């Protein structure tokens, strides 16, 4: 091999021990800085989207479990007359309406315990979010590898019983007993944990009252009420 060829190869990094010229440290440092800057940029751009999508997926999953827990208990056969004691006069007019706090408490406690068990089972399974969903494009919504989102129940299933009266026609009023449920959960993402509260309201029983609402009526009052029945029929599932 001629001297000219050997000189050309040496200038290209060949002909030395190792075969290639070692890269300079400034170049390595510049590449490393660019890589880190790119990761920081992508993290800042994608993290809010990931948080939003993950929160939506968890919200849907928890609301589904709330509905299942309520309807599992109502499926055993719960009638309006079992929860509300209604008294009438000789003319059939409603004179007294009073909630049966013992039965209501038993029902709400069963719902809360069932929901806590369902949440515990959900926490042991992963909720998957396709990365294509992060693009915001419909065609890519179910594409790409899945980002694993874990659910962490952090303790509280809060319940509140309340009721409302709404007009149901001429001289008719619909009375609905409703259950407010609030669940606090943690959402485990890669290198991050966020916490959120999920609420849902479902009707338990309802009935149409013909005639005026009786003057003697003991209402629920709500969990934040003072006195009355509120302290007896609202609480948590712990």
Question: Which SSEs are present, and which pair or pack?
Answer:
Blueprint: H1 3-11, H2 25-74, H3 80-83, E1 84-88, E2 94-99, H4 101-123, E3 127-130, E4 146-169, E5 172-189, E6 192-210, E7 216-217, H5 230-233, E8 235-236
Parallel strand pairs: 2-7
Antiparallel strand pairs: 1-2, 3-4, 4-5, 4-8, 5-6
Plain-language structure description:
The chain is of the alpha+beta class and 238 residues long. It has one domain (30-236). The chain has 5 helices and 8 strands. It has helices spanning 3-11, 25-74, 80-83, 101-123, 230-233, and strands at residues 84-88, 94-99, 127-130, 146-169, 172-189, 192-210, 216-217, 235-236. The strands form 2 sheets. Strands 3, 4, 5, 6 and 8 form a 5-stranded antiparallel beta sheet that branches. A 3-stranded mixed beta sheet has the order 1-2-7. A hairpin with a 2-residue loop joins β4 and β5 (172-189). It comes from Candidatus Avidehalobacter gallistercoris.
As a percent range, the share of strand residues is 25-35%
Topology pattern, helix = H, strand = E: HHHEEHEEEEEHE
* Helix/strand class: alpha+beta
Low-confidence stretches: 222-238
> Nearest-angstrom radius of gyration?
32 Å
Measured distance between first and last alpha carbons: 86 Å
Mean pLDDT: 73
Q: What gross morphology would you assign?
A: elongated
Count of runs of 4 or more consecutive helical residues: 5
Total separate domains: 1
Number of strands: 8
Specify the helix fraction band: 25-40%
Protein name: Sporulation protein YunB
Pfam family, one: Spore_YunB
Organism: Candidatus Avidehalobacter gallistercoris
